[in-house]
Amino acid sequence: MANIYTPRQERILLVASILTIAGFIIAGLYQYATAFLGAAILYVVFRPWFNKLVKEKKWNRVLVTLLLMLFSLIVIILPFLALSLLLVDRIQYYSQHTDQILDLVNQLEKVTGIKIMDQNNIRSLVRQATTLASRQVPSILSGTLDIIIILGLLYVSLYFMFTQQEQFQRGLKRYLPFRAETIDELGEDLKNMVNANVLGQALVSLIQGFLTGLTLWIFGVPDAAFWGVVGFFFAFIPILGTPIVWGPAGIFMLSQGNTSSGVGILLVGVIVIVNIDNLLRIMLAKRMGDVHPFITLTGIVLGVPIFGIMGLVVGPLLLSYFVVLMKVFQRQNIRMEQEEVKKDTT
Fold first, then answer.
1. Is 0.85 surpassed by the pTM of this model?
2. Domain coordinates of the chain in residue numbers?
Protein backbone atom coordinates (compact mmCIF):
# COMPACT_ATOMS: atom_id res chain seq x y z
CA MET A 1 0.00 0.00 0.00
CA ALA A 2 1.13 3.54 -0.73
CA ASN A 3 2.02 5.75 2.20
CA ILE A 4 -0.70 8.30 3.01
CA TYR A 5 1.90 10.99 3.83
CA THR A 6 3.73 13.23 1.43
CA PRO A 7 7.57 13.39 1.74
CA ARG A 8 7.26 16.79 3.44
CA GLN A 9 4.72 15.43 5.95
CA GLU A 10 6.93 12.42 6.63
CA ARG A 11 9.87 14.70 7.39
CA ILE A 12 7.78 16.90 9.72
CA LEU A 13 6.40 13.86 11.57
CA LEU A 14 9.88 12.37 11.89
CA VAL A 15 11.26 15.58 13.40
CA ALA A 16 8.25 15.84 15.72
CA SER A 17 8.75 12.23 16.84
CA ILE A 18 12.44 12.81 17.53
CA LEU A 19 11.69 15.97 19.54
CA THR A 20 8.93 14.23 21.51
CA ILE A 21 11.12 11.27 22.46
CA ALA A 22 13.99 13.63 23.27
CA GLY A 23 11.63 15.59 25.54
CA PHE A 24 10.75 12.42 27.47
CA ILE A 25 14.43 11.50 27.78
CA ILE A 26 15.36 14.99 29.05
CA ALA A 27 12.46 14.98 31.52
CA GLY A 28 13.48 11.55 32.84
CA LEU A 29 17.14 12.48 33.22
CA TYR A 30 16.56 16.06 34.41
CA GLN A 31 17.59 15.42 38.01
CA TYR A 32 20.83 13.84 36.78
CA ALA A 33 21.74 16.63 34.34
CA THR A 34 24.72 17.59 36.51
CA ALA A 35 26.28 14.19 35.73
CA PHE A 36 26.41 14.86 31.98
CA LEU A 37 27.44 18.49 32.45
CA GLY A 38 30.14 17.39 34.87
CA ALA A 39 31.39 14.80 32.39
CA ALA A 40 31.58 17.45 29.65
CA ILE A 41 33.49 19.81 31.96
CA LEU A 42 35.98 17.14 33.03
CA TYR A 43 36.43 16.08 29.40
CA VAL A 44 37.41 19.62 28.38
CA VAL A 45 39.70 20.00 31.42
CA PHE A 46 41.56 16.71 30.96
CA ARG A 47 41.52 16.45 27.16
CA PRO A 48 44.98 18.09 26.75
CA TRP A 49 46.44 15.59 29.27
CA PHE A 50 44.76 12.70 27.48
CA ASN A 51 46.02 13.75 24.05
CA LYS A 52 49.55 14.26 25.32
CA LEU A 53 49.75 10.85 27.01
CA VAL A 54 47.88 8.83 24.36
CA LYS A 55 48.83 10.53 21.09
CA GLU A 56 52.33 11.76 21.94
CA LYS A 57 53.55 9.33 24.60
CA LYS A 58 51.63 6.37 23.10
CA TRP A 59 50.22 5.23 26.43
CA ASN A 60 47.32 2.80 26.56
CA ARG A 61 44.06 4.68 25.97
CA VAL A 62 41.99 2.79 28.55
CA LEU A 63 44.72 3.04 31.19
CA VAL A 64 45.03 6.83 30.73
CA THR A 65 41.25 7.20 30.91
CA LEU A 66 41.05 5.24 34.16
CA LEU A 67 43.95 7.21 35.68
CA LEU A 68 42.31 10.53 34.77
CA MET A 69 39.00 9.35 36.20
CA LEU A 70 40.69 8.30 39.46
CA PHE A 71 42.60 11.57 39.64
CA SER A 72 39.45 13.67 39.11
CA LEU A 73 37.60 11.64 41.75
CA ILE A 74 40.31 12.08 44.40
CA VAL A 75 41.35 15.66 43.63
CA ILE A 76 38.08 17.30 42.48
CA ILE A 77 34.88 15.34 43.17
CA LEU A 78 35.44 13.95 46.67
CA PRO A 79 36.89 17.17 48.18
CA PHE A 80 34.06 19.25 46.73
CA LEU A 81 31.49 16.75 47.99
CA ALA A 82 33.12 16.64 51.44
CA LEU A 83 33.13 20.44 51.69
CA SER A 84 29.48 20.54 50.65
CA LEU A 85 28.41 17.98 53.22
CA LEU A 86 30.47 19.69 55.93
CA LEU A 87 28.70 22.95 55.11
CA VAL A 88 25.25 21.41 55.47
CA ASP A 89 26.22 19.54 58.64
CA ARG A 90 27.40 22.70 60.38
CA ILE A 91 24.38 24.70 59.22
CA GLN A 92 22.15 22.02 60.70
CA TYR A 93 24.15 22.22 63.93
CA TYR A 94 23.64 25.97 64.19
CA SER A 95 19.94 25.56 63.43
CA GLN A 96 19.68 23.39 66.55
CA HIS A 97 21.80 25.81 68.62
CA THR A 98 20.29 29.16 67.70
CA ASP A 99 21.24 30.59 71.10
CA GLN A 100 24.82 30.97 69.87
CA ILE A 101 23.64 33.02 66.89
CA LEU A 102 21.32 35.10 69.09
CA ASP A 103 24.20 35.89 71.46
CA LEU A 104 26.31 37.03 68.51
CA VAL A 105 23.50 39.26 67.21
CA ASN A 106 23.02 40.79 70.67
CA GLN A 107 26.72 41.57 70.91
CA LEU A 108 26.74 43.13 67.44
CA GLU A 109 23.74 45.26 68.39
CA LYS A 110 25.57 46.51 71.48
CA VAL A 111 28.67 47.42 69.48
CA THR A 112 26.88 49.09 66.56
CA GLY A 113 23.88 50.46 68.45
CA ILE A 114 21.64 49.22 65.64
CA LYS A 115 18.68 46.90 66.12
CA ILE A 116 19.44 44.13 63.63
CA MET A 117 16.51 41.74 63.81
CA ASP A 118 13.89 40.29 66.14
CA GLN A 119 14.92 36.99 67.80
CA ASN A 120 11.96 35.06 66.40
CA ASN A 121 12.83 36.28 62.91
CA ILE A 122 16.43 35.15 63.39
CA ARG A 123 15.30 31.65 64.40
CA SER A 124 13.00 31.49 61.38
CA LEU A 125 15.79 32.70 59.09
CA VAL A 126 18.18 30.03 60.41
CA ARG A 127 15.58 27.30 59.86
CA GLN A 128 14.98 28.51 56.31
CA ALA A 129 18.72 28.54 55.63
CA THR A 130 18.99 24.97 56.92
CA THR A 131 16.15 23.81 54.68
CA LEU A 132 17.63 25.58 51.67
CA ALA A 133 21.11 24.18 52.24
CA SER A 134 19.80 20.65 52.72
CA ARG A 135 17.85 20.98 49.49
CA GLN A 136 20.84 22.24 47.49
CA VAL A 137 23.32 19.66 48.82
CA PRO A 138 22.12 16.07 49.27
CA SER A 139 22.73 14.82 52.80
CA ILE A 140 24.50 11.56 53.58
CA LEU A 141 21.28 9.88 54.72
CA SER A 142 18.82 10.97 52.03
CA GLY A 143 21.06 11.54 49.02
CA THR A 144 23.43 8.58 48.96
CA LEU A 145 21.63 6.80 46.10
CA ASP A 146 21.40 10.01 44.05
CA ILE A 147 25.09 10.69 44.57
CA ILE A 148 26.00 7.15 43.44
CA ILE A 149 23.81 7.43 40.33
CA ILE A 150 25.18 10.87 39.41
CA LEU A 151 28.79 9.78 39.85
CA GLY A 152 28.08 6.57 37.92
CA LEU A 153 26.54 8.43 34.97
CA LEU A 154 29.32 11.03 35.08
CA TYR A 155 32.16 8.53 34.90
CA VAL A 156 30.49 6.20 32.40
CA SER A 157 29.96 9.20 30.11
CA LEU A 158 33.52 10.40 30.67
CA TYR A 159 34.91 6.92 29.99
CA PHE A 160 33.28 6.70 26.56
CA MET A 161 34.14 10.31 25.70
CA PHE A 162 37.82 9.46 26.07
CA THR A 163 37.99 5.85 24.88
CA GLN A 164 35.87 6.70 21.82
CA GLN A 165 37.09 10.26 21.42
CA GLU A 166 37.32 10.24 17.63
CA GLN A 167 33.77 8.90 17.20
CA PHE A 168 32.53 11.40 19.79
CA GLN A 169 34.12 14.34 17.97
CA ARG A 170 32.87 13.16 14.57
CA GLY A 171 29.36 12.95 16.02
CA LEU A 172 29.59 16.50 17.33
CA LYS A 173 30.76 17.82 13.96
CA ARG A 174 28.01 15.92 12.16
CA TYR A 175 25.07 17.03 14.30
CA LEU A 176 26.07 20.52 15.43
CA PRO A 177 24.55 23.16 13.11
CA PHE A 178 27.88 24.82 12.35
CA ARG A 179 30.56 24.65 9.70
CA ALA A 180 33.81 22.81 10.36
CA GLU A 181 35.90 25.97 10.86
CA THR A 182 33.20 27.43 13.09
CA ILE A 183 33.18 24.28 15.24
CA ASP A 184 36.94 24.60 15.74
CA GLU A 185 36.51 28.20 16.88
CA LEU A 186 33.61 27.15 19.12
CA GLY A 187 35.72 24.42 20.71
CA GLU A 188 38.52 26.87 21.50
CA ASP A 189 36.09 29.42 22.97
CA LEU A 190 34.36 26.78 25.10
CA LYS A 191 37.72 25.51 26.36
CA ASN A 192 38.65 29.02 27.46
CA MET A 193 35.31 29.41 29.21
CA VAL A 194 35.74 26.13 31.08
CA ASN A 195 39.23 27.14 32.15
CA ALA A 196 38.03 30.54 33.35
CA ASN A 197 34.80 29.42 35.05
CA VAL A 198 35.91 26.09 36.48
CA LEU A 199 39.69 25.95 36.91
CA GLY A 200 40.26 29.66 37.44
CA GLN A 201 37.26 30.33 39.66
CA ALA A 202 37.73 27.16 41.71
CA LEU A 203 41.42 27.93 42.28
CA VAL A 204 40.69 31.51 43.37
CA SER A 205 37.87 30.34 45.66
CA LEU A 206 40.03 27.63 47.19
CA ILE A 207 42.84 30.06 48.00
CA GLN A 208 40.35 32.62 49.30
CA GLY A 209 38.63 30.06 51.51
CA PHE A 210 41.94 28.79 52.85
CA LEU A 211 43.20 32.28 53.65
CA THR A 212 39.91 33.17 55.31
CA GLY A 213 39.91 30.07 57.49
CA LEU A 214 43.61 30.50 58.33
CA THR A 215 43.11 34.15 59.29
CA LEU A 216 40.17 33.35 61.55
CA TRP A 217 42.10 30.49 63.16
CA ILE A 218 45.15 32.67 63.83
CA PHE A 219 43.01 35.31 65.53
CA GLY A 220 41.07 32.80 67.59
CA VAL A 221 37.64 32.81 65.95
CA PRO A 222 35.61 29.71 66.95
CA ASP A 223 34.96 27.07 64.27
CA ALA A 224 37.44 28.67 61.87
CA ALA A 225 37.57 25.62 59.57
CA PHE A 226 33.83 25.75 58.97
CA TRP A 227 33.92 29.47 58.21
CA GLY A 228 36.79 28.83 55.81
CA VAL A 229 34.54 26.39 53.93
CA VAL A 230 31.78 29.01 53.90
CA GLY A 231 34.34 31.48 52.54
CA PHE A 232 35.24 29.00 49.78
CA PHE A 233 31.65 28.88 48.52
CA PHE A 234 31.03 32.61 48.95
CA ALA A 235 34.22 33.34 47.00
CA PHE A 236 32.42 32.14 43.86
CA ILE A 237 30.13 35.18 44.17
CA PRO A 238 31.76 38.25 42.60
CA ILE A 239 31.95 41.54 44.53
CA LEU A 240 30.53 40.03 47.75
CA GLY A 241 32.82 37.02 48.23
CA THR A 242 34.76 36.34 51.42
CA PRO A 243 34.12 39.76 53.06
CA ILE A 244 30.74 38.29 53.99
CA VAL A 245 32.68 35.91 56.24
CA TRP A 246 35.72 37.76 57.62
CA GLY A 247 33.88 41.08 57.96
CA PRO A 248 31.35 39.86 60.55
CA ALA A 249 34.10 37.76 62.17
CA GLY A 250 36.15 40.89 62.78
CA ILE A 251 33.12 42.71 64.20
CA PHE A 252 32.38 39.68 66.38
CA MET A 253 35.85 39.80 67.91
CA LEU A 254 35.49 43.54 68.53
CA SER A 255 32.15 42.93 70.23
CA GLN A 256 33.87 40.42 72.51
CA GLY A 257 36.29 43.11 73.62
CA ASN A 258 39.14 41.50 71.68
CA THR A 259 40.14 44.65 69.83
CA SER A 260 43.52 43.44 68.53
CA SER A 261 42.03 40.29 66.96
CA GLY A 262 39.09 42.15 65.49
CA VAL A 263 41.25 44.85 63.95
CA GLY A 264 43.75 42.20 62.79
CA ILE A 265 41.07 40.21 60.96
CA LEU A 266 39.71 43.31 59.23
CA LEU A 267 43.17 44.52 58.23
CA VAL A 268 44.24 41.12 56.87
CA GLY A 269 40.93 40.86 55.02
CA VAL A 270 41.20 44.26 53.37
CA ILE A 271 44.95 44.35 52.73
CA VAL A 272 45.77 40.69 52.03
CA ILE A 273 42.72 38.60 51.11
CA VAL A 274 40.98 41.16 48.88
CA ASN A 275 44.18 42.15 47.08
CA ILE A 276 45.27 38.56 46.56
CA ASP A 277 41.82 37.88 45.08
CA ASN A 278 42.21 40.78 42.63
CA LEU A 279 45.78 39.77 41.75
CA LEU A 280 44.84 36.14 41.12
CA ARG A 281 41.92 37.10 38.91
CA ILE A 282 44.13 39.38 36.80
CA MET A 283 46.80 36.68 36.42
CA LEU A 284 44.29 33.95 35.56
CA ALA A 285 42.42 36.20 33.14
CA LYS A 286 45.60 36.48 31.05
CA ARG A 287 46.20 32.73 31.08
CA MET A 288 42.69 31.25 31.03
CA GLY A 289 40.37 33.96 29.74
CA ASP A 290 38.28 36.55 31.53
CA VAL A 291 34.60 36.35 32.49
CA HIS A 292 32.65 39.48 33.31
CA PRO A 293 31.42 39.55 36.96
CA PHE A 294 27.87 40.21 35.73
CA ILE A 295 27.88 36.90 33.84
CA THR A 296 29.23 35.09 36.90
CA LEU A 297 26.69 36.62 39.28
CA THR A 298 23.74 36.09 36.92
CA GLY A 299 24.89 32.54 36.23
CA ILE A 300 24.98 31.76 39.95
CA VAL A 301 21.47 33.14 40.44
CA LEU A 302 20.36 31.03 37.47
CA GLY A 303 22.31 27.87 38.29
CA VAL A 304 21.91 27.31 42.04
CA PRO A 305 18.08 26.86 42.02
CA ILE A 306 18.39 24.39 39.14
CA PHE A 307 21.59 22.46 39.89
CA GLY A 308 22.00 23.02 43.64
CA ILE A 309 25.42 23.95 44.94
CA MET A 310 26.99 22.75 41.67
CA GLY A 311 25.21 25.72 40.12
CA LEU A 312 28.02 27.91 41.50
CA VAL A 313 30.12 26.46 38.68
CA VAL A 314 27.58 25.18 36.16
CA GLY A 315 25.38 28.31 36.10
CA PRO A 316 28.09 30.79 35.02
CA LEU A 317 29.44 28.17 32.62
CA LEU A 318 26.07 27.73 30.88
CA LEU A 319 25.58 31.48 30.62
CA SER A 320 29.11 31.82 29.20
CA TYR A 321 28.29 29.07 26.68
CA PHE A 322 25.21 31.02 25.63
CA VAL A 323 27.30 34.15 25.05
CA VAL A 324 29.87 32.13 23.08
CA LEU A 325 27.16 30.55 20.91
CA MET A 326 25.71 33.97 20.14
CA LYS A 327 29.16 35.21 19.08
CA VAL A 328 29.71 32.11 16.93
CA PHE A 329 26.28 32.57 15.37
CA GLN A 330 27.15 36.19 14.59
CA ARG A 331 30.50 35.24 13.01
CA GLN A 332 28.86 32.54 10.91
CA ASN A 333 26.23 34.98 9.63
CA ILE A 334 28.94 37.49 8.69
CA ARG A 335 30.81 34.82 6.73
CA MET A 336 27.64 33.80 4.89
CA GLU A 337 26.94 37.42 3.98
CA GLN A 338 30.49 37.85 2.71
CA GLU A 339 30.17 34.71 0.57
CA GLU A 340 26.88 35.96 -0.87
CA VAL A 341 28.49 39.31 -1.71
CA LYS A 342 31.35 37.50 -3.49
CA LYS A 343 28.86 35.44 -5.51
CA ASP A 344 26.94 38.54 -6.53
CA THR A 345 30.10 40.33 -7.61
CA THR A 346 31.22 37.38 -9.73
1. no
2. 1-175, 179-346
